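Researcher: Let's walk through a ligand-bound prediction step by step. First, I give you the protein sequence. Second, the SMILES string for magnesium ion. Third, you return the three-dimensional complex as structure tokens. Ready?
Model: Ready.
Researcher: Here are steps one and two:
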Amino acid sequence: MDIKSENINKTYVKKGLFNIEILNSINIEILSGQKIALTGPSGAGKSTLIHILGLMDRPTSGKVYIDGIDCFKNNDKYLCAMRKNNIGFIFQFHYLMLDFSVLENILLPVWSERYIRLKYAKSILERLGILDRQDHFPNELSGGEQQRVALARALINDPRIIFADEPTGNLDRVTGLEIERLLFEISSESGSTLVLVTHNEELVSRADRVIKIVNGKVCT
Ligand SMILES: Nc1ncnc2c1ncn2[C@@H]1O[C@H](COP(=O)(O)OP(=O)(O)OP(=O)(O)O)[C@@H](O)[C@H]1O
Ligand SMILES: [Mg+2]
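Model: Step three, the predicted complex:
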């Protein structure tokens, strides 16, 4: 699926304070199947941007088109369905549910279909090399394993677009690189679009395109 943003602005209004402008007129176009590395200094607005592109947060103004559909014209229920059907999201820190097992965490996004999806969930775990951990709880796993579970959860709906916000969190460099490499591999296999916030030079050079955000603007 392709993604296009048109003049995205994001401003936070703090009572009694001036407005804080986070994103300023972001225009980007990402073609279906492209692998994009999103880079830029801390505080530049990368997370804010992918939350908006991933339909988890609304911009103050501007549009996001996914396969030509003007998404924010629609209500939250529509956005939710669009995410459920098409989008996988991996956060900087895994945000796994600690009281749920690995398998349950992965099935959460498709809970009403969990029995039908069980086999698929297990096949993803196998692909990520953690099938033997399916009944463990998140705090029984290493950081790298937790992030693989978060990756599996993002893949359970067979997303056409994957967003990953520096999925390396507090992992060491080698483990973090492994997770990012896996993401590249898997999105290439499935032909899905990938937008990855990363600072890793190897992955930046492997990306089809690099988009750099500085001070809330696309830096060209
Ligand atoms: N809810 C909020 N209210 C006010 N300001 C916010 C809010 N959320 C984020 N910001 C500000 O927006 C700016 C951009 O934040 P964002 O998280 O998008 O940056 P980032 O590029 O992802 O940085 P990092 O690389 O450190 O993750 C920061 O200055 C941050 O303080
Ligand atoms: Mg961020």
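Researcher: And what stands out?
Model: The two ends are 24 Å apart (CA to CA). The chain has one domain: 3-219.
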